[in-house]
Amino acid sequence: NRKQTGVLVMSYGTPESMDDVEAYYTHIRRGHAPTPELLAELKGRYEAIVGGVFPLRENTNGQVAGLQDKLEQLAPGQFVCYQGLKHAKPYIEDGVERMAKDGITQAVGIVLAPHFSTMSVGSYMKRAQEKAAELGVEMTFVRQYHMHPKILKALTDRVVDGLSRLSEEMDGEGRVKVLFSAHSLPEKIRELDDPYEQQLLETSAAVAKAAHVKDWQFSWQSAGRTREPWLGPDILETLPGLAEEGVKAVLVAPVGFVSDHLEVLYDLDIEAKAAAKELGMTLDRIAMLNRDPLYMETLAESVIEALDSQG
Ligand code: FEC
């Protein structure tokens, strides 16, 4: 009777309802409640996306179920997945606690974000590790999977599809630029020798090459509303230069994200699209990975590999 291995699947988390937005925002701001203006603005953004729902919750649930299915195929009976969210319930610590309650003593942690930064994936890992140590669960982690051939293939297929959609829309005329993007982080990560920027450029270059795209660049998006400097240029600052260069259409490939959620459905589909239109350009976006089978395989294989390499 082999002992089961826990898999802590970690994701950003999203509010459960409009009433929950303030608590969620306060958690993101490390316990500091937002001003009424900031809160109203965030609620407005949620209301603007597909009917004011919180698609990230359903997508995360689907990804956790998809990963469980895939692991079951690859190693029947060995793995049990638990969810742990950064800013909403069930929190990362809740997930570890549930594993421990179920008698799990060995677990692998993986984050639903492909690129490593101390400020993103690193902070999920730290919280999980602290709770696991407290409860006597031995944990190992997948740090990144941004160059796994299957995630690259899934992203490449989406760029190819997106380009053919755009080309149809434009009757094959006019210059098209592919803009890879990811969530910005405070500029201070550069002082920490953080791999985040380099990993994002690696993914972008590999996908561009596989999709035979020559006209591409990388841009940041969704910087936080704080006073410190964030990595730039932001996509909204990049668009005017592209219009000046004669670009007629932009295909955004948000390779730092894996799900339909606010930062994609609002920041790109509403805000960036409107900015591009104002500049006389068409802006479109690749489909997100969500529960794509190749993404599920990337996660499952990365989990198994992390466990194997631990010995
Ligand atoms: O759909 C949803 O409900 C959630 C969308 C969402 C995702 C997401 C991903 C990342 N964030 C990252 C870093 C930061 C840092 C701050 C910050 C702030 C916010 C706010 C909202 C928000 N984030 Fe987020 N993020 C999402 C949503 N994020 C809402 C607060 C309002 C605002 O500033 O826009 C700044 C915190 C501070 O104030 O100090 C830093 C990173 C990711 C991608 C990796 C990951 O998924 O973990 C990094 C999705």
Write the layout of secondary structure elements.
Layout: E1 5-11, H1 21-28, H2 36-48, H3 55-74, E2 79-85, H4 92-101, E3 106-111, H5 121-135, E4 138-141, H6 149-169, E5 175-183, H7 196-210, E6 216-221, H8 235-245, E7 247-253, H9 262-265, H10 267-278, E8 282-285, H11 293-310
Parallel strand pairs: 1-2, 1-3, 3-4, 5-6, 5-7, 7-8
GO biological process, one term: heme biosynthetic process
EC number: 4.99.1.9
Function: Involved in coproporphyrin-dependent heme b biosynthesis. Catalyzes the insertion of ferrous iron into coproporphyrin III to form Fe-coproporphyrin III.
Briefly characterize the structure.
It is found in: Cytoplasm. One of its GO terms (biological process) is heme biosynthetic process. Helix content is 47%, strand content 16%.
Beta percentage is 15-25%
Calculate Rg over CA atoms: 20 Å
Order of helices and strands: EHHHEHEHEHEHEHEHHEH
Measured between the Cα atoms of the first and last residue, the distance is: 20 Å
User: Which stretches are poorly predicted, pLDDT < 50 over at least 5 residues?
Assistant: none
> Ligands bound here?
ligand FEC
Overall mean pLDDT:
96
